[in-house]
Specification:
Layout: H1 6-19, H2 23-33, H3 35-38, H4 43-65, H5 74-90, H6 95-113, H7 122-142, H8 144-147, H9 172-193, H10 196-206, H11 208-213, H12 218-244, H13 254-267, H14 273-292, H15 297-311, H16 313-328
C-alpha cells in the first residue's frame, strides 16, 4: 500500500479535523461514567437512559443524517430484544454473543426492508416504516408459543459478563455494560458521520437530486445507513432484554418509536449528542412525574412536552438546537 499523496492528505484534512474529539465530549463521557457515584441508588434509571440514548442515536443516523423520516424504529428495537432473549433461552446466555445476535437479526430486517423506504415522500416513508413495525408486532403476537405473546418472554438469565461480573440487583453491572456498548457504538456512529460517507449522506438529505447528479449513489448509501441504524437499534433492544431478563410485545409497540422521536425533538437531530441530552431529559422527567402522580403522570408528561416543543420552542428548544449546530460545525 503506497502512502497517501499530499493532495490526498489535504483533501482528507477537513474530515480529520471534524472527527477530532472536543473537550466537552470528554466531559460528557466522564460524567456518564461517574453517574452512579454522583447519583447513587439510581443505577436502573441510568441504565434506561443509556439504552434509550443508543436507540435515539440509531434514529438520528437515518433522520438527522440520511433524511429518512421513520415511525417504525421499534421494529428493529423489538427484533433485537426478542433475538437476544430467544438466543439466551434456547442457545447460549452469554451477554456479548446475545448482543451480537440481536444486532445481527435487526440488521437483517433493516437490510430486507430498506428497499421499501428508499423511494417516495416523507409521508410515504412514515406509513411504510409504521406498517413494518405493525406487521412485526402482529407476527410476535401471533406466534405466542415462541415469543410468549402478551405474557412476554422470560425464564432466562444472563451469565456473568466476561465470566466475572454478575448482573446484580442494584443494576450497577447492567449500567456499565450498557454504557460500554453505547460508548463503542457511539464511536462507530461518530466515525461514520464524520467520514466522506457521512458527508455524502448529508448531501443526499439536503438535495437528493443534486447528490445523484454529481455521482453519489443515493440508494446504496441510504440502504447502508438504514441497515447500520437497524443494527444499533437492535443492540439497544438486546441490552434491554439482557439487563432486565424479560422482553414482551411492548418492545415492538408504537410508543417506542414515538418516545425515541420525542427524544430527538428535545435534544435535536443531526447531532449525535442530541440523543443523549434528549434521553436524559425525557427519562428523568418521566421518572419524576410518575413518582409524583402515579395515576396521571402521562398527562403531565404530555403537557410538559407540548409546552417545551410549542410554547417554549423559541426560548428552550431553538437556542439549544442553535448551539448544537455551532458545535457540530466546529472544525
Amino acid at each position: 500500500m503506497t502512502p497517501a499523496s499530499a493532495p490526498d492528505r489535504d483533501a482528507l484534512a477537513p474530515f480529520a479535523r471534524s472527527a477530532r474529539a472536543q473537550p466537552y465530549e470528554v466531559a460528557i463521557w466522564i460524567l456518564a461514567a461517574l453517574a452512579i457515584v454522583l447519583f447513587p441508588g439510581h443505577a436502573a434509571l441510568w441504565n434506561e437512559i443509556a439504552i434509550l440514548t443508543l436507540f435515539a442515536v440509531s434514529l438520528d443516523l437515518i433522520l438527522g443524517y440520511g433524511g429518512i423520516v421513520s415511525l417504525g424504529q421499534a421494529a428493529f428495537f423489538g427484533t433485537g430484544s426478542y433475538g437476544a432473549a430467544l438466543f439466551a433461552k434456547h442457545a447460549m446466555n452469554d451477554p456479548l454473543a446475545g448482543l451480537a445476535v440481536g444486532a445481527a437479526a435487526a440488521a437483517l430486517v433493516g437490510l430486507a426492508t430498506s428497499i421499501l423506504v428508499l423511494r417516495g415522500t416523507d409521508l410515504t416513508r412514515l406509513m411504510v416504516t409504521l406498517g413494518i413495525a405493525s406487521i412485526l408486532y402482529e407476527l410476535a403476537n401471533r406466534f405466542d408459543q415462541i415469543t410468549g405473546g402478551a405474557d412476554g418472554l422470560h425464564g432466562f438469565a444472563m451469565r456473568p459478563l466476561f465470566g466475572r461480573f454478575a448482573f446484580d440487583l442494584d443494576g450497577k453491572v447492567a449500567y456499565y455494560y450498557s454504557l460500554s456498548v453505547l460508548f463503542v457504538l457511539f464511536l462507530v456512529a461518530r466515525a461514520v458521520v464524520h467520514s466522506p460517507f457521512g458527508y455524502s449522506l448529508m448531501a443526499i438529505r439536503d438535495n437528493r437530486m443534486r447528490a445523484t447528479a454529481i455521482g453519489i449513489d443515493s440508494n446504496r448509501r441510504l440502504a447502508a445507513i438504514y441497515t447500520l441504524a437497524a443494527a444499533m437499534a437492535g443492540a439497544a433492544g438486546a441490552l434491554l432484554a439482557q439487563t432486565t431478563g424479560f422482553t414482551s410485545l411492548d418492545s415492538l409497540d408504537f410508543h417506542r418509536s414515538a418516545d425515541v422521536l420525542l427524544v430527538l425533538v428535545i435534544g435535536g437531530t443531526g447531532y449525535l449528542y442530541g440523543g443523549l441530552i434528549g434521553a436524559v431529559v425525557f427519562v428523568v422527567m418521566k421518572d419524576v412525574l410518575s413518582a409524583a402522580t402515579p395515576q396521571y403522570w402521562q398527562f403531565w408528561l404530555g403537557l410538559i412536552l407540548v409546552v417545551i416543543v410549542l410554547v417554549g420552542r423559541e426560548r428552550i428548544v431553538r437556542p439549544w438546537h442553535a448551539l448544537a449546530d455551532r458545535l457540530r460545525r466546529r472544525p
